[in-house]
Amino acid sequence: MTKARVFFLLLILGTAFWGVSFSLVKVGVGDGSPFIFLAYKFALAALVLAIVFARRLRSLSPRALAAGVLIGLPLLLGNVFQTIGLQHTSVTNSAFITGLDVLIIPLFKWGLFRRPVQGRVWISCGLALLGLYMIVAQNGLRLNVGDLWTMACAVFFAAYVLTVGHFAHRYDPLQTVIVALAFCGAGCGLAGAFDARAIWMPVDMSFWRGIVFAALFATAFMYAVQSSAQRYIAEEKVALTYLCEPVFAALAGVLLLGEALTLRTVIGAGMILSAMVLPEIDLRALRSSGTPRQRIKA
């Protein structure tokens, strides 16, 4: 199995952690400040990765440090705008609009950076977005002012993926991701300082359980894998794996929160999984493999 396939599977595992963490975060945050949760989550993830990869951090150069900050900036803004948007819009709208980065990434790649995008990737993105709509928009979408903040979030998440891809071959991806996560932790902590709902030491254990799971699995694991994976996987394919999150979130909701599994969710999940497989199919190889059989029959 190639490195690209291994990292592709690890990214899907990471989105499973994202999906499970959604239920834990929803319970853990409650009515408190989401910025405090994000600050602890990013800080703990950065600390764990810094300890595990301490030797690699010793060779951190000023340029790699600057690259990590540039990677962390759109990630931080994406999280902040998503949080602000959630205060004014529904979880359904937020999930769907955030998922628009699956189209924004290839658009930016093609329009701004003049890099080619395969035709079947565009088809996959459209199919995946339709599947996402099937899952999250069970009762339709009603747009409001919070959706504008969430649209900004989708743009910055797309910028984050493209920035990671830009620096993936220039610097050690684990160095830059540690810096990026630490930068996000500091930025969210600063935002929390201006949040009237901020409680820095919550007594609710569900808050801390959510922090530990989200930090270790949904953040440290996922972003470390992604930063390394983008040496081998194109940005638009990374974006397609992101859309597995609502699939796993729906399953986690069924198992952890007792929510119902609907037919729309099953159909949407099938569309997303099909969209992920489509770009991996080598049509030329299939055609060439069919040629000898046609000659034998003749």
From TrEMBL:
Protein's UniProt keywords contain Iron: no
Any one annotated GO CC term: plasma membrane
Pfam families referenced in this protein's UniProt entry, alphabetically: EamA
Keywords, sorted A to Z: Cell membrane, Membrane, Transmembrane, Transmembrane helix
Major localization listed first in the record, in broad terms: membrane
Keyword Lipid biosynthesis: no
Span of domain EamA: 9-136, 145-278
Locations listed in the record: Cell membrane
Membrane topology: Multi-pass membrane protein
Spans traversing the lipid bilayer: 33-53, 65-85, 91-112, 119-136, 148-167, 174-194, 206-226, 238-257, 263-283
Official protein name in the record: Threonine/homoserine efflux transporter RhtA
